[in-house]
Design brief:
two-stranded antiparallel sheet
Length: 335
């Protein structure tokens, strides 16, 4: 009897684990979308029809470009990339996140919380601005200082347009919900030097406005202690145009409907995508992307998301709807 009871318990535990894993996969799998055909039919040598084997990085990059084009169809930026380049060249404030590497004829649009520190290190080496051969030897804080890089917005209109139309262009994206949670954890829960600024700049105001049942005078002037639901309430009530770049939409930082990106890397496949892009842009053989450390945020996404009310959950996903659609991400039944 005891053995039979143990068997039932273990069976139920195993079912629970599988259910949880399926839930995480539903959230994090970048290829999970019923509207995107991931295995097109092909004609085999004998004339029979079959399916392609699991795609390589090159084919995945093509699918991502096609997904962006499909999502952008009908928007202002989809008519002509040459027209968009001409328009963008006279609106440089839209191009401040595009870094220029004239040596390799490359433009990289950096997105905070998507391995941008390491990719900025790579760009310093690629462009010849650093003599280092190991990107990890470049101090992390040094790549975020002003005037370290030439930005596309720094150039004259004709030079901007020329680079938009002729240079190789790439960016890296991440599941929108995971990226927001990562930004929150980094800027409001950690005790990094940069976190102190965000806590004082945003945290104090957020808690004074959204913390219920307490006197504003009791809010610490350090801004420490912001809760994720309070942060999400702030996002919901703030215009997207006023978002800090750490939680701004990728589509409003890099303008994928206007800029014809050749390569769209994803955080979920960071190592393979980085290696592929380095090969495509002609990086020297000695240069390798730093070893990818698994994100600690991925394991707690559901916990943070479930701390929100159903209305907050729905509103948060709606805020990032463009990023979900353009970059082929999904979350539960909200998208």
């Amino acid at each position: 009897m005891a053995c039979r009871l143990r068997a039932v318990v273990w069976g139920l535990a195993g079912l629970c684990v599988l259910t949880c894993l399926a839930s995480v996969r539903w959230f994090s799998d970048p290829s999970h979308s019923p509207e995107v055909e991931r295995a097109p039919l092909i004609s085999t040598p004998d004339g029979a029809m079959g399916y392609l084997q699991p795609p390589g990085v090159s084919r995945e990059m093509r699918w991502r470009r096609e997904a962006v084009q499909a999502a952008c169809a009908g928007t202002a930026g989809s008519a002509s990339f040459s027209d968009a380049a001409a328009r963008l060249s006279y609106d440089p404030k839209m191009l401040i996140n595009l870094l220029v590497d004239d040596k390799n004829r490359v433009l990289y649009c950096y997105v905070p919380k998507v391995a941008c520190t390491n990719w900025k290190r790579m760009m310093l080496i690629l462009s010849g601005a650093s003599n280092e051969t190991n990107p990890q030897r470049i101090p992390a804080d040094s790549v975020h200082r002003k005037n370290v890089f030439t930005k596309l917005s720094d150039l004259k209109p004709d030079d901007i347009q020329h680079r938009l139309l002729t240079y190789s262009k790439f960016l890296f994206v991440r599941h929108p919900v995971e990226r927001v949670i990562s930004a929150f954890r980094n800027k409001f829960e950690m005790n990094y030097t940069s976190s102190a600024y965000f806590k004082k700049r945003f945290g104090v105001k957020i808690m004074k406005k959204y913390r219920k049942g307490v006197s504003p005078r009791s809010i610490p002037n350090t801004g420490h202690g912001v809760k994720f639901p309070e942060f999400v309430s702030y996002l919901i009530d703030t215009k997207k145009e006023q978002f800090n770049e750490h939680w701004a939409l990728v589509s409003s930082l890099c303008y994928p409907c206007d800029v014809n990106y050749d390569y769209i890397g994803k955080y979920e496949t960071l190592a393979d995508d980085s290696q592929y892009i380095l090969e495509q842009i002609g990086a020297p053989p000695f240069l390798h992307f730093p070893e990818v450390v698994p994100s600690k945020t991925s394991a707690v996404v559901e916990t943070y998301f479930n701390s929100l009310t159903p209305q907050q959950q729905s509103d948060l996903v709606k805020i990032y709807k463009d990023d979900f659609q353009i970059f082929d991400y999904h979350f539960r039944d909200f998208i």
